Amino acid sequence: MLRGLAGAFVCLLVTSVPYLYGAAAAPDGRVYLGLLFDVPDHAQYWSWVTASREGLFISNTMTPEPNAATFLNPAMWLLARAQMLFGLSFAALFQWWRVAAAAVVGPALAVTVVRLARTPAQARVAFWVSLAGGGLGWVLVAAKYLLGLADAPFPEAIYIVEPNTWFGLLAYPYLPLAQGFMLIALTGAFRVHAGAGAGAWAACAAGALGVALLHAYDLVVVYAVLGVFWLVETARARRIPWRLSWAIVLILVCSAPLAGYYQYLTSADPLWRAVLAQYVNAGVWTPVPPLLVVLLGAPLVLAAWRVRGLPWRHDGTRFVACWALTSAALIYVPSVFQVKLLAAFQVPLALLAADVWCTTLAPALAALAARFGGRLARLVPVLVLAGLVLPTNLYLLVWRLVELRRPDAPYYVTTDEAAALDALAAVASPSDVALALEPVGRWVPNYGRTRAYLAHWAMTNRYFERRDTVHQFFSTDVDDAWRRRVLAADGVTLVVWTDREARLGRSYSPAGSALFEPVFIAPTAGVFRVRAY
């Protein structure tokens, strides 16, 4: 466990370099927000943290409709408690979130590979491949530059984070944190089946509860893997594996109530049902099989090789094979969240790949190097393996440094926009609705603790309609009578103006209208309260 913790923190330190660079080298006139990827979704998480300061159950503040406080995310509630207790900024809180993710996923991964691998050498290889390894996406990046393309082809084969622990520790800490609890639950159930005692039972309960509290989607993988393993063990022994059965029951008892509540909320509540339906807007699906090879890389190829002639009598290998084959089927279920079912797929693939590597490929490479008189022949397999699994993740790291040099990157707001958001925080209340362009509007719920007219591609109901409306609102193609009707229709009480639209030739400013009363005005941003409709 200590080695797993140390390994995870080494990755955490390396992946902290872009954050330090962003904080130290923000372009003039820009304020760094403390993020590296996917600003819209992280703004959504921060809106949940902000709302959770008031209680466990919260409403959706990224849409203008009044809605009841029926949603809960216990992880965000805990983050809200930490933020209030220690007075942390969102950027600082995010870094502590990354620390928590490393502290959970590192030891959990180390225990999992030790319990399931056939040899210590295989466990070591599987640990580092699943912790720091990535796919072959660097090939697509190279194609971009060699062919002079505007962007890398098939980006879904590069930037899907769920099966990449390194990527998660870099920019999406909730995923490795949840996956750490997945590993605890799955390994706990396996150990219970193998005859382990109270510690394994406790791992089942803690892991299942952790997944339910952090990322309930991942329960689909846990349930499916254990269900398939139960069927295999029942068929193999021709009797019911009662210890495994009771472990599954314990996992269900600890996790199903919260998962059931989420299912009820997203099916019974009209607003949340509409929000869930908009997840198709992301346009992110599991890559087709040829591109899946690019996304998952050498571990997938070696794992597929290992499935032939698999030593099914070894309990750990049998469990890993059930896990890998079940996940391979799950990731193509016809659902808007199918890509989320790639969660932790890298772990069974790494275990199967490590079996091939340690028994066949590494000895062959070492022997070949020795034939040419290499004094460091033992290092050749290590270097080859690193060359197979590290380049894409190193690219993700370096690419962030390049992106952070761009003043128009979404990881910054201007100093005037930051001042406007601070002014909004001073005057807004939960009953207000604020309208702004999306790059600024997504931060309204965090600063103003109020609802946003336009904030997120899924959480804002009728997203495309409202996005187009906001662009019209700040254009000179409509009059104030039209704007008044828009404001009244959704109870908008505040408008945050920036010069972002002016840069595109749409130069309307509320400062010159009798509809609005100025609250804060800066050269390139302002906050205005709507007068009576």
What's the alpha carbon Rg, rounded to whole Å? Answer: 25 Å
The structural domain count equals 2
Helix residue percentage: 55-70%
Q: Provide the spatial order of strands within the biggest beta sheet.
A: 6-5-7-9-8
Strand count, sense and barrel status of the largest sheet are: 5 strands, mixed
Taken as a percent bin, the fraction of beta residues is 5-15%
Number of strands: 9
Description:
The strands form three sheets. The chain has a five-stranded mixed β-sheet. Strands 1-4 form a two-stranded antiparallel ribbon. A two-stranded antiparallel ribbon has the order 2-3. The protein has 25 helices and nine strands. It is an alpha/beta fold. The chain folds into two domains: 2-32 and 89-403, no CATH class; 412-530, Rossmann fold (3-Layer(aba) Sandwich).
